[in-house]
Amino acid sequence: MRPSKQPDTSNDQRGDWQTLRSLLPYLLEFKWRVAIALSLLVLSKLANVSVPLVLKEIIDALDKPQAALAVPVFLVIGYGVLRLFSTLFGELRDAVFAKATQRAIRRVALQVFEHLHSLSLRFHLDRQTGGVSRDIERGTRGIGFLLNFMLFNILPTLLEIGLVAAILFSKYDIWFAAITFITLLVYISFTLFVTEWRMVVRRSMNDLDSKANSRAIDSLLNYETVKYFGNEQYEARRYDENMRHWEVAAVRNTTSLAYLNAGQSFIVAIGITALMLLAADEVVKGTMTLGDLVLVNVFMIQLYMPLHFLGFVYREIRHALADMEKMFGLLHEHREIADAPDAQVLSVGKADVRFEQVDFGYAPDRQILFDVSFAIPAGHTVAVVGASGAGKSTLSRLLFRFYDVGQGRILINGQDIRLVTQASLRAAIGIVPQDTVLFNDTIYYNIAYGRPDAAHEEIIAAAQAAHIHDFVASLPQGYETPVGERGLKLSGGEKQRVAIARAILKNPAILIFDEATSALDSKSEKAIQAELHAIAQNRTTLIIAHRLSTVVDADQILVMDKGRIVERGSHRELLAQNMLYAQMWNLQKQEEKVHPAY
């Protein structure tokens, strides 16, 4: 099997060194543990290399019938002690280093998790949840493998090889050391070359694995849609198509591994055979004893195992680095929205909100807002209406600073929101979104999410204010009722009421209702509309609505069309103008007559 094109590994190697350097701070957190572990590592290898030397002395002593019996007994006891120490020091080393390894995994996983939450909405709209979760899973697993095997297998193996080579060089003919070095050099060169080639296959496997997992997660999250259209087999075919490509890559990975193992065994076998022939010849000549022959043989066995393991470890470390590559790549994702270096905490009080000549587009060729200017005086309510795609919901995303404006600015109490901390900005704003997505937890948890440190009584009061308490109390499990994935166990109206309760509990200075009652029937809407009006009192409120009957009491109504504000005024003023708002009002009134439930 020969690759059609040699991969350019220079960038990969630079990335590998960066990955290794990025782990150093986590190791330095436990300097003394690392130092003790490395000391135990050296002691373990010294004991391991001493075992064949003692064995040689035992054999030579037993080869002399006149020798005192106490000498081999003493050596045998020493042999057993060294065997014990070579294992014991290794186990102690693993125990001492375990905390450093697990803490590094925890720290990196937390750092990636926090960074993902700091990335912009644009990143999260583009990402595939299944692929990202698989990248993090493989990456954290790779950290543990890398730290353990890099420090406790590569280093001790190289140390043991060096010690053995030094003993052979000092005690025996130079050819013993020469053959050992040549075997080692050929073995390492072959392993590096083939492993670098195999990394292309491994990366391909990772990409296909993440893609297949993304397809599976996406399909399961949209379970109802799959059922609505009877597309179970279609989804299975899409998933299997990815798995088929993964299977091809996996087969290539396994066959190339067999080729690598066979080549390594062939190289080592030639080296050991050459050494044993040389040692046997020296014994026949009388320049070496039987104990020397056994010593060389045991050394070769001890070298063969770590050499073979060295190849395995190197492969796995390269695989671990490949697995970690995407996870650390997430850490290098650009934060589109970041706090300014001198960002101040937002001074809220009674919040006054102003949009000044705001232009915005999700992409350079897709402008959404054009020269939007309006003000929401402290304690007042402004409603925004218009057709779908007019840019209404974009206003709330900009106010939350999920995106930054292209031109113009947004002010709260005279402070540009780009110059205040995101945490203080979002703490001042509460929202009831059009599409309410709940955590896969209990109703109580989802309401309490508005303010996790709230008292139990405050959570119940928020539920009562949102007119959901009676419904929850009627459930067998009450507030401990699970809502399911994305809240699918609740109806649209029930989810919306949970979202309203959550916003009430947050008790923000600024409220945004983004189609807040869109999922409610007319009766429920009228029951909750008065409550929404009550909680909006003395708060700066932005209402984004399609149903005009919900905004007639707003202090000012803005009518948007194709990203521009085309009309503004009170309900009566806009009707009197007899323009777009009046047309929308009359159209909805006619629909209500045809469909009274509307």
Determine the number of helices (DSSP H or I, runs of at least 4 residues).
18
* CATH C-level label of the largest domain: Mainly Alpha
- Determine the N-to-C terminus distance: 68 Å
Structural class: alpha/beta
The beta-strand count equals 10
Q: Residue-averaged pLDDT, rounded? A: 78
> What's the helical proportion of residues?
55-70%
* CATH homologous superfamily classification of the largest domain: ABC transporter type 1, transmembrane domain
SSE order, one letter for each helix or strand = HHHHHHHHHEEEHEEHEHHHHEHEEEHH
Low-confidence stretches: 1-10
Radius of gyration equals: 35 Å
Overall geometric form: elongated
Major sheet, described briefly?
A: 6 strands, mixed
- The total domain count is 3
* Biggest sheet, spatial arrangement of strands: 6-7-8-3-9-10
CATH topology of the largest domain: ABC transporter transmembrane region fold
CATH architecture of the largest domain: Up-down Bundle
Strand content: 5-15%
